[in-house]
């Protein structure tokens, strides 16, 4: 998304982001394709932005191949933060442990499960 936004002027960036978000959060691959066509029509004057979306379309929509419950985690661009979100939820509880080893084991196991 950032590469496409960088390809347009500052004035158009908000509208581009709106189109890209609509593509990314579409209910199906077909709806995402409709949003892409809308984007291509709206920004046909900026071939660099359209080319970036078209060339990377398979990578952008690869998460549709997986079950819907996984889409949220697959859409994230931060590979490290996605699994650590579960760990972060449990770190407050780990402070209640008397032993640092027990707390570390809980956090490690949570991370392995995530």
Count of domain modules: 2
Helix segment tally: 8
What's the SSE pattern? HHHHHHHH
Helical/strand content category: mainly alpha
Structure overview:
68% of the residues lie in helices and 0% in strands. The chain is elongated and about 65 Å long. It has 114 residues and is mainly α. It folds into two domains: 74 residues, no CATH class; 33 residues. The longest helix is centred in the first third of the chain and has 14 residues.
Layout of helices and strands, plus pairs?
Elements: H1 2-6, H2 13-24, H3 29-42, H4 47-55, H5 57-60, H6 71-75, H7 81-94, H8 100-113
Helix pairs in contact: 2-3, 7-8
What does this entry show, briefly?
This protein has 114 residues and is mostly helical. The chain is 68% helix and 0% strand. The protein is elongated, with a radius of gyration of 20 Å.
Q: Features of this protein?
A:
114 residues; mainly alpha; 2 domains; 68% helix
């Amino acid at each position: 998304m950032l590469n496409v936004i960088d390809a347009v002027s500052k004035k158009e960036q908000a509208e581009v982001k709106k189109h890209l978000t609509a593509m990314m959060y579409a209910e199906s691959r077909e709806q995402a394709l409709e949003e892409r066509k809308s984007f291509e029509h709206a920004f046909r004057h900026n071939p660099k932005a359209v080319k970036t979306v078209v060339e990377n379309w398979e990578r952008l929509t690869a998460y549709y191949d997986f079950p819907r419950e996984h889409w949220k985690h697959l859409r994230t661009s931060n590979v490290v933060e996605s699994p650590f979100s579960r760990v972060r939820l449990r770190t407050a509880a780990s402070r209640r442990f008397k032993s640092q080893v027990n707390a570390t084991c809980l956090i490690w196991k949570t991370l392995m499960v995530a």
